[in-house]
Design brief:
Largest sheet of chain B: none
Largest sheet of chain A: none
Number of helices of chain B: 14
Number of strands of chain B: 0
CATH architecture of the largest domain in chain A: Orthogonal Bundle
Distance between the termini of chain B: 12 Å
Shape of chain B: globular
Radius of gyration of chain A: 25 Å
Order of helices and strands of chain B: HHHHHHHHHHHHHH
Number of strands of chain A: 0
CATH superfamily of one domain in chain B: MetI-like
Order of helices and strands of chain A: HHHHHHHHHHHHHH
Radius of gyration of chain B: 27 Å
Helix content of chain A: over 70%
Distance between the termini of chain A: 30 Å
CATH class of one domain in chain B: Mainly Alpha
CATH superfamily of the largest domain in chain A: MetI-like
CATH architecture of one domain in chain B: Orthogonal Bundle
Oligomer: heterodimer
CATH topology of one domain in chain B: MetI-like fold
Chain lengths: 298, 341
């Protein structure tokens, strides 16, 4: 498959000296890659081990003291119940699910218009969407908070989830429209034309033809957006004001500022935050990587 | 995206298209309708369909106008106002900007090395971007020579799935000055080095944070560059080998030039990441010790929501926007020339 999968220095391995060099090079490669594997695994592994160690052990010895290992689930019990991480987990789900499906629906609709419906200034409008890709969320904070409170003081959008849903959705649109439009335009024009000639309405073409054949692209974008929202701290910091509705990222940030050295709680909390993205990553790795590759512009 | 072939399906009315992808649609024989399409095209270009365009675009247009366009204009205007409580009550011209660029916590060029939040972004751009690309390319090229390539790539990629908040906890743990907690100081302790407060020393803190950023992003660079390296045709490299080129020549004279476009796209993405960088700093150091590790996005949050200076905070947000405009132009240009897929 790959050029570079060819053995190292293939052309030079013909002489005995060349073969020694090639073997040595091979060992250097294995050692270097092994070292990289260790550096990228050990920090996370250390925190995972710590999350199962009793508090007294954590303070007495490092997690790498594997000959003295006692494991417990107490840390998880404590952080889920006493520290409210269970509620925060539920809150994260409440924030992440609508903030994934709303953009999916709205982006697919808009992307269809940008690829298969004729209207004036279509390409100009699409270039504006491309330009919107990079608008930082920071520009929205002050206007949205002040306008929301001055227009509808009783509504108190930031007391619930509505503000954070809408903000996540709006800032997901440019990327989602961009990604899906670029997929939709690769569909064969004859397929769309044929359906239209058979009398299908635009919405029917969209829902019965374009959407079903685009499931891989939509899934890749959906996974990307879901993890983006699940992992977000900044939007929740600004748009979720009610502490009973804080997602896990904010709960962990609070834990850290209150009990900065209570590692048994922090480690367990951090793993609760990581568990869903890790499951998604390992089970849907292909879609996830595709989404990221396509999204390398965000 | 790859699409497998499949059985031709006859129904375009789509009674059976719900659910999973129907790759069959793409391989359908269209000869039957071809004639009718040609007839329809012969009638001239299709008329614009305003009704459908409005129906499909309206939800997106409303959200983009209310949440992106209107706030951007509001923020630009507010940056020329005192902006107490976010209201337009006292116009101050460029006063917020004058104060911002005169604030040594934002940018201080009078000392060496310079300091301030904006300068920290420069440090991030220089070190984070270059090292992520360098390591990503090395890992992509080297891992391609071993059988466990996919395992290495997956391991390096894992941090991409994890929240910056969790990365911050993981690395605060590694950096802990307590040698019973922090792995780094425990290792150094074995060599007789006394514990170092990585996040507590204002000269070290930025580099300690940049290291975490690099750790978090190398997987992304590896995946992008690995795909680029593999798109180089095998025959090209093989013929160079036959002609006697060594590995170093192949890397510098063939691979590097052929991945230069993906590298530039990657560099732009990483620079955008740096300008928007917030979560990691906020959770790991909250801009400290003192103000040593602040970055521009942190300053915006801090000024607007902790100090309550909305006009001043808006000016910081506008500076972020202005820094991103050249990249927007670059993206739009790249898109118009068709380089973006």
């Amino acid at each position: 498959m790959s050029v570079l999968a060819a053995p190292m220095a293939g052309s030079r391995a013909r002489t005995p000296a060349g073969r020694v060099v090639a073997t040595l090079n091979h060992w250097v490669i294995h050692i270097a890659l092994g070292l990289i594997g260790v550096i990228w695994l050990v920090p996370t592994l250390g925190l995972l081990v710590t999350s199962f160690r009793p508090r007294s052990d954590i303070q007495a010895t490092g997690w790498w003291d594997v000959f003295n290992l006692h494991l417990t689930l107490d840390n998880y019990r404590q952080v889920l119940e006493a520290q409210g991480m269970l509620q925060a987990f539920v809150n994260t789900v409440f924030i992440a699910v609508p903030s994934t499906f709303l953009p999916l629906a709205i982006c697919s609709l808009a992307a269809f218009a940008f690829s298969w419906i004729k209207f004036p200034f279509r390409d100009t409008l699409f270039l504006i969407v491309v330009a919107f890709l990079l608008v930082p969320v920071q520009v929205a904070f002050i206007p949205l908070l002040t306008t929301a409170t001055s227009l509808v003081p009783d509504l108190q959008l930031t007391r619930g989830y509505v503000a954070v849903w809408l903000a996540h959705t709006a800032f997901a649109l440019p990327f989602g429209i961009f990604l899906l439009r670029n997929f939709f335009i690769t569909l064969p024009p004859d397929m769309i034309e044929a359906a239209r000639i058979d009398g299908a309405s635009d919405f029917r073409v969209f829902s019965r033809i374009v959407l079903p054949v685009s499931v891989p692209a939509i899934a890749a974008y959906g996974i990307f957006q879901f993890l983006w929202v699940w992992n977000d701290l900044l939007m929740a910091l600004v748009f979720v004001q009610d502490s009973s509705k804080f997602p896990m990222t904010r709960a962990i940030q609070n834990l850290l500022s209150q009990y900065g050295t209570e590692w048994h709680l922090l480690a367990a909390g951090a793993f609760l935050l990581m568990i869903v993205p890790l499951i998604v990553f390992f089970s849907l790795q292909r879609y996830f990587v595709q989404g990221l590759l396509a999204g390398s512009i965000k | 995206m790859e699409r497998a072939g499949g059985q031709p399906v006859r129904s375009l009315n789509g009674r059976r298209h719900m659910g999973l992808p129907m790759p069959a649609e793409l391989t359908r024989d269209y000869a039957a309708v071809g004639g009718r399409i040609a007839a329809r095209r012969a009638r001239g270009p299709e008329a614009p369909n305003y009704g459908a365009a409005i129906f499909f675009l309206l939800p997106a247009a409303i959200l983009l106008i209310v949440f992106l366009l209107y706030p951007s204009l509001y923020t630009v205007l507010l940056s020329f106002n005192r902006g107490r409580n976010g209201a337009f009550e006292q116009w101050v011209g460029f006063d917020n900007y004058v104060r911002l660029f005169g604030d040594p916590d934002f940018i201080n060029l009078s000392t060496f090395p310079p300091s301030g939040a904006l300068w920290n972004n420069v440090l991030w751009i220089v070190f984070y971007t270059s090292i992520v690309i360098f390591l990503g390319l090395i890992i992509a090229v080297v891992a391609a020579r071993v059988r466990y390539e996919s395992v290495i790539k997956a391991i390096v990629f894992i941090p991409m799935a994890i929240a910056a908040t969790a990365l911050a906890v993981i690395w605060k743990f590694v950096y802990s000055p307590d040698a019973n907690i922090g792995l780094l100081n425990a290792i150094l302790g074995n060599f007789g080095v006394s514990p170092i407060s990585w996040l507590g020393d204002e000269h070290l803190v930025n580099f300690a944070l940049i290291a975490v950023g690099i750790w978090g992003s190398v997987g992304f660079a590896t995946v992008i560059l690995s795909a680029a390296v593999k798109s180089i045709p095998a025959e090209v490299i093989e013929s160079a080998r036959v002609e006697g080129a060594n590995e170093r020549q192949i890397f510098f004279r063939m691979i590097l030039p052929m991945v230069s476009l993906p590298i530039s796209v990657l560099a732009v993405t990483l620079i955008v990441n740096v300008i928007k960088l917030f979560d990691l700093i906020y959770v790991m150091t909250a801009g400290g010790p003192g103000k040593a590790s602040r970055v521009i996005a942190f300053t915006m949050y801090q000024q607007a929501f902790q100090a309550g200076q909305y006009g001043y905070g808006s000016a910081v947000a506008v500076v972020m926007l202005v820094l991103l405009i050249p990249i927007m132009v670059y993206n739009v240009r790249r898109f118009r020339t068709g380089a973006v897929t």
